[in-house]
Amino acid sequence: MAVYKRGDTYWYKFRFAGQVIRESARTSSKTVARDAERARRRELELAVNRIPRRERMPLFSVAAREWLDSRTGMAPKSIIAYRQYVASLTEQFGQRLVCDIDERDIATLQRKRLAEGKAGRTVNYETGTLRQILKAHGLWGTLTDKVRALRERHDVGRAIPREHEERIIQAASQSRSPALLPLFILSVDSGLRASEVRSLRRKDLKLAWADGVIVAGELSVPKSKTDAGTGRIVPLTRRACGALTLWLSRFPDSGPDGYVFPRCKVGVAGNGHEPYLWDVDASRPIGQWKKAWARALKKAGLDYRWHDCRHTFVTRLAENPSVSEETIRALAGHVSKRMLERYSHIRVQAKQAAIAALERDREATSSPDSQSDGAQNWAQPAPTPRHLLS
Fold first, then answer.
1. Tens digits of per-residue pLDDT, 75-115?
2. Which of 52, 125, 241, 327 measures 20 to 30 Å from 273, CA to CA?
3. 240 with 183: CB under 8 angstroms?
4. CA separation, residue 139 to residues 58, 71, 135 (Å)
5. Which residues are 5's β-sheet partners?
6. How far apart are CA 308 and CA 297, in angstroms?
7. Do 172 and 260 meet the contact criterion of CB atoms below 8 Å apart?
8. pTM value?
């Protein structure tokens, strides 16, 4: 081993495995240069003997931030959700080493979230984010059999009854957001998700006009969360055609690439405070309408999620015996029977009607003549098949 000086910088030189290693220690201290030489030799000895270097475990806040930065190519909505989960997890574990989190900490987190009123599905999503962060550092394997997912409810969605639908339409027609009424009618009559409605462009609509009114049409879903949902064709109801007629007339200069529901600002004018649209940008889709939806529901005295529009659409199709499951999947974009059953909330009235139909069939076949004939036929032995007599 040798440490020597070139100018103001020390270098070290030694032979390892028949090779001469000559490198700069990048220091003007001879003591530091000797330590650098020993560290370099040890690094080469570990590498040649295939002894992996022990990785220093970072704080959870650092590990979570690095994991989040590595998430590329994901949908913006997913990135937003992951940021929220990372923020809440960092608040819980931020100042601890990532290797110090065990199954007891995860169970404590689950109990805390449930006490805060979080749903089991929400807690499972947060735990899943934690799992991915720990897995990135090889720490999840020992926890796999010790962490249990919470039970999730699959009956959250509800179908909106007709009488409630009328109250929502009445409240939406008085909303300060002119887009709320056509958004609701189109969603409940087509079953499109909020993201699918938001992504609709003019070129995705095939409309038949007559005297300035849409008399028929259909839409093609340009982008969906499932492959089966993308590109599906949904015919428009007459009510949806009427709502789109009034809505699209607000944007006569919008081209085929313009969004059906463009981004715009809403103002009020006149003594009646009538809402009007301004600063319209047809090249960008509409933002969120959660506040307008919440105000309309409060005015109607109801409590529904926006996604219940989709539940309503599928449920009404499922209640019609002439509509097959294949047709429902083609319209709604479902790919599995399990998902279809999740959305098909057959209401009590439909079940009662089905039982009543069975009762009518039984009564129709329970006349005295049919009963005697049935009893006589039942008492007689069944004929022997010909191939058994030969």
1. 787 888 999 999 999 999 999 999 999 999 999 999 999 99
2. 241
3. no
4. 12, 19, 5
5. 10
6. 13
7. no
8. 0.64
**What long-range pairs does 358-362 form, CB within 8 A, spacing at least 24?**
none
> Which residue matches tokens 């010909």?
386
CATH 1.10.10.10 is held by the domain 162-343: no
Q: Looking at the structure, give the CATH architecture of the domain made up of residues 60-143.
A: Orthogonal Bundle (1.10)
Partnered with residue 207 across adjacent β-strands are 217
Domain ranges within the chain, ordered by starting residue = 2-48, 60-143, 162-343
Contact by Cβ (8 Å): 199, 223: yes
Do 209 and 165 touch, CB atoms closer than 8 A? no
pLDDT at 382 over 70: no
Q: How far apart are CA 120 and CA 136, in angstroms?
A: 24
C-alpha 82/C-alpha 84 separation (Å) is 5
* pLDDT digits 0-9 by tens, 258-283: 999 999 988 877 776 778 888 899 99
Residue with tokens 């083609």: 330
Neighbours of 380 (CB within 10 A): 7
Q: Assign 281 to helix, strand or coil.
A: strand
Distance of alpha carbon 187 from alpha carbon 313, whole angstroms: 8
Let me know: does 44 contact 34? Beta carbons within 8 Å: no
Rounded average pLDDT over 14-32:
90
Distance in angstroms (rounded) separating the CA atoms of residues 10 and 32:
9
Residue 45 belongs to what H/E stretch? helix 30-48
What is d(CA 256, CA 253) in angstroms, rounded to the nearest whole number?
10
For the purposes of burial, counting CB atoms within 10 Å of the CB of 25, is it exposed (0-12), middle (13-18) or buried (19 or more)?
Answer: buried
Q: What pLDDT is attached to residue 132?
A: 95
In the block, tokens 């650098």 appear at 36
The one-letter amino acid code at 311 reads H
Query: Residue 165 above 80 pLDDT?
Result: yes
